[in-house]
Write a structure and sequence with these properties.
372 residues, five-stranded mixed β-sheet, 13 helices, 51% helix
């Protein structure tokens, strides 16, 4: 064979080998790609009516997960009542009727009153973002997991997220001028807030969000709180009451809760579990920014609907704090409840104390610029 023929033969061999190697490499990649294309579908229900901004927040979380999963995971969002009523969500997730859900821990305080401490606890000076800080870095998540897994033995995995602003005292036919105006009225709230208001002599009714406005309209309750200007406006509070009392210590630091069935969650590949955890934090930040925009606009719309917006009197705020003292003392007879509250107090003393000492008041600057 000539040297030229040898060179041609050698080039042919190398070219054929490269093609074969490429085909082999493609074959090794193709198998995982087939696996990755398989979609896990999860049924996920909120505790909110479709028109509520809270259901929109739930949808924002779901969209983040679906967008990031690259088709490997698809969460289907349903509104309250689509599968089970709002207050039955946690049982449905525990039993696997639903794969997950979106709500607040206060809705489950009938199972154990310590549940309400994770998002709707007593006024300790913390805002909701500081509560989330406690959940992530102050031992809160470990205590939550102890409650869910060891004490209640629920087949769920839960994440607190989404800091809410201070909630208003609520909507009333007549303004609240002092603590005596809260005695003997029929009033809607949830969680430990119910015990606090009972200490003020209020007749408390616990209702899910979608049932509050009809109850006021029918005269079944005299007043109610829900959460924020956007939810209140969308749910129709402006049609049934014309007095909105803002600022209150009954729920100054509530957060949302995302639940998954534990078996379903731990059965996901590790990278999908991690993706969900990171989506929780991303949705938490995004929600707080969206709330700034929407809540401020909707409060102006509420005022335009001829609603009188009044700050809750200081006498009511002080009465609430005194009532909280009694609730915490009574419930702290339970060792786990006390352990959680003590943990929160230690965090609040350090973190809120730091904030009060270190952060300049925005009011002085605001008044200077806007001559408020």
């Amino acid at each position: 064979m000539t040297s030229q023929a040898k060179a041609v033969s050698r080039r042919k061999f190398l070219r054929t080998g490269a093609i074969a190697a490429g085909a082999a490499a493609t074959g090794t990649i193709a198998m995982p790609q087939v696996s990755r294309a398989q979609t896990v579908n999860l049924k996920f229900q909120s505790t909110w009516p479709t028109k509520d901004i809270f259901h929109e927040f739930a949808g924002d979380f779901v969209k983040k997960v679906n967008d990031m999963s690259g088709g490997r995971l698809r969460i289907e969002l349903l509104a309250a009542g689509a599968v089970v009523p709002a207050f039955q969500l946690i049982d449905a997730v525990h039993n696997g009727i639903l794969d997950g859900g979106h709500g607040v821990s206060a809705y489950w305080f009938g199972k154990n009153k310590a549940f309400s401490l994770f998002g709707t606890g007593p006024a300790l000076g913390m805002d909701a973002n500081q509560v989330l800080g406690w959940m992530r870095y102050g031992g809160g998540q470990q205590l939550y997991d102890e409650l869910v897994g060891q004490i209640l033995k629920l087949n769920i995995v839960g994440f607190q997220y989404g800091p809410m602003g201070t909630q208003p005292l609520g909507w009333f036919k007549k303004p609240i001028t002092g603590p005596n105006d809260l005695k003997n009225i029929k009033y809607r709230t949830v969680g430990l807030s119910a015990d606090m208001f009972k200490g003020l002599g209020t007749n408390v009714t616990i209702l899910p969000g979608g049932e509050i406005v009809p109850a006021i309209e029918k005269g079944l309750i005299d007043g109610a709180e829900f959460n924020n200007p956007s939810s209140d406006r969308l749910l129709g509070f402006t049609d049934v009451a014309k007095n909105l009392m803002v600022q209150s210590y009954h729920q100054p630091n509530e957060t949302f809760e995302i639940l998954f069935n534990r078996a379903k969650f731990t059965g996901l590949p590790g990278e999908l579990q991690a993706m969900i955890r990171h989506a929780v934090d991303a949705a938490s930040s995004d929600m707080s920014w969206k709330a700034m925009d929407r809540y401020s606009k909707d409060l102006e719309a509420i005022k335009a609907a001829k609603v009188t917006v009044t700050k809750t009197p200081e006498s009511v705020l002080k009465a609430q704090l005194a009532a909280w003292d009694k609730v915490v003392a009574e419930q702290s007879k339970d060792a786990f409840f006390k352990k959680v509250v003590d943990s929160q107090k230690a965090w609040a003393k350090r973190v809120v104390g730091f904030d009060l000492e270190y952060t300049v008041s925005p009011q002085i600057a605001f008044n200077h610029i806007f001559k408020a």
